[in-house]
Write a structure and sequence with these properties.
It contains 15 helices and no strands. It has 370 residues and is mostly helical. The protein has one domain.
C-alpha cells in the first residue's frame, strides 16, 4: 500500500491538511450559531434560520474528520509499536482534549453558583447535578450512563470521541486485516453508515444521550476507513474533486431547505466531501486556504468548548424584552471568538504541550505530535 501522495500533501503543522483545519473551524462556528438560534434577531431571514437549525450536523463532520486525522497520524505508529505505543497514543489524545475540558467543566461551576445567589428560585435544577459532573470529569457522560445532557452540554461529543480513541487500536488491527483494496474500505464504510442510518430512525440529532455514542463510533470508524481508501487510490484531478464538492453541497442543501432525511444523506455526503479535501486540490480546498480560516480552525476546539458558556451568560445578561435586537448576537459572537483565542493560547496549547513533554520523557525523549 502506498500513501506517497498523502505524505507529499501541502501541510502546515505536522499531520495537518490545511483545508481540513479550515473546514473544522467553519463547522465549529456552525454549531456556535446553532446553539443561539432561538435568540437570533426577529428579522433573521427564514433560510438563514433553517441553515442555523441544521448546525447539529456539523458534529457528524467532526467525527468523520477526527477518524481520518487520527488514522493519518497514528495508525502506523500503533501498528508497529505494540502496547507501549498504544499507551502513548492514549496519553497524547487525553492531553489533547482533557485540560481544556476539565477547565471548562470547573468554569461552569459559576453557573449554579450564580443561580443560587441571584435567582429567585435559587435552584440550579437537573442540569447541574453532581452525578453528571462526576461522569463528565471521567469523560464518560455520554456512554449511555445518563438520561440527559448537562453542564457543558456540547462536551457530550468529547466523551464519545474519547471512547472512539479507546477502541481505535482495535480498529487499526481490524482494518489492517480486512482492507486490501479501495473498494473494501468503501464497502465497510457503507455497512457502518447503513447501520447508523437504520439505528437513527432517520434523525441524527435525536436521543443524543443514548444514540450519540453509536453515532460517533460509526462515523469515526468511517473516517478512519477514508484514510485506508485514500492511500489505496491515486489522487483525482481538480475538476473531479470540485464537481464532487458541488454535489455534496447540493445534498446538504437538500437536508437544510428541502427536508431530506439527514441520516440518509449527511454521513455519506460529509465522507465524500472529506475525500476531496484530503487531496488539497479542489475548488473548495482553494477557498479554504486563507490564513484567517486556518486560524479559525486552529482554535476550533476552544471555540467548541467555550461557546455554550458564552451562550448561557449572554442570555442571562442580554436576552430580555428591552434588549436591542442585534446586541445579544454580537455579544455572543464576540465573546466566543475572544474566549476561543484566550483559551487556545493559555489553556489548550500549554496543557497539550505539558502532556506531550511528559510522554516524550517517559519514552526516552522521543518527540510526538498530538
Amino acid at each position: 500500500m502506498s500513501a506517497a501522495w498523502l505524505t507529499r500533501r501541502p501541510a502546515g503543522q505536522a499531520g495537518q491538511i490545511p483545508a481540513l483545519t479550515a473546514i473544522r473551524g467553519l463547522a465549529a462556528w456552525w454549531i456556535v450559531i446553532y446553539h443561539f438560534r432561538d435568540a437570533l434577531p426577529a428579522a433573521t431571514p427564514g433560510w438563514v434560520m433553517d441553515a442555523a437549525s441544521g448546525g447539529y450536523l456539523a458534529v457528524d463532520l467532526f467525527f468523520e474528520l477526527s477518524g481520518f486525522v487520527i488514522a493519518l497520524n497514528y495508525a502506523a505508529k500503533i501498528r508497529g509499536g505494540g502496547s507501549r505505543k498504544i499507551l502513548e497514543f492514549y496519553a497524547l489524545r487525553l492531553g489533547r482534549i482533557y485540560p481544556l475540558h476539565i477547565f471548562m467543566l470547573l468554569l461552569f461551576c459559576l453557573n449554579p453558583l450564580a443561580i443560587a445567589l441571584f435567582s429567585a428560585k435559587a435552584d440550579p435544577g437537573i442540569r447541574y447535578n453532581l452525578e453528571y459532573f462526576g461522569l463528565s470529569a471521567l469523560l464518560m457522560q455520554n456512554w449511555g450512563l445518563a438520561s440527559e445532557l448537562a453542564w457543558n452540554v456540547p462536551a457530550w461529543s468529547i466523551s464519545t470521541e474519547w471512547f472512539a480513541y479507546l477502541v481505535f487500536p482495535a480498529m487499526v488491527w481490524l482494518w489492517d486485516r480486512t482492507v486490501r483494496r479501495a473498494w473494501q474500505a468503501v464497502l465497510i464504510a457503507a455497512v457502518l453508515l447503513g447501520g447508523l442510518m437504520a439505528a437513527s430512525g432517520g434523525q441524527l440529532g435525536g436521543d443524543i444521550e443514548h444514540f450519540g455514542l453509536l453515532r460517533c463510533v460509526a462515523e469515526f470508524a468511517a473516517g478512519a476507513l477514508l484514510f485506508y481508501f485514500a492511500r489505496l487510490q491515486p489522487p483525482r484531478g481538480f475538476m473531479v474533486n470540485s464537481v464532487l464538492e458541488v454535489c455534496v453541497g447540493l445534498a446538504i442543501a437538500g437536508c437544510l431547505w428541502r427536508g431530506w432525511t439527514d441520516a440518509y444523506v449527511v454521513p455519506a455526503a460529509f465522507l465524500l466531501l472529506l475525500t476531496s479535501l484530503v487531496q488539497g486540490h479542489s475548488l473548495l480546498a482553494a477557498a479554504l486556504s486563507g490564513r484567517l480560516l486556518l486560524l479559525v480552525g486552529e482554535v476550533s476546539y476552544s471555540t467548541y468548548m467555550v461557546h455554550y458558556f458564552a451562550k448561557d451568560w449572554t442570555k442571562l445578561l442580554l436576552v430580555h424584552d428591552n434588549a436591542l435586537s442585534n446586541l445579544p448576537l454580537l455579544a455572543y459572537v464576540a465573546t466566543t471568538a475572544l474566549a476561543s483565542a484566550v483559551l487556545y493560547h493559555f489553556v489548550e496549547v500549554p496543557g497539550r504541550r505539558a502532556v506531550r513533554q511528559l510522554v516524550g520523557q517517559r519514552a526516552g525523549g522521543v518527540k510526538h505530535a498530538a
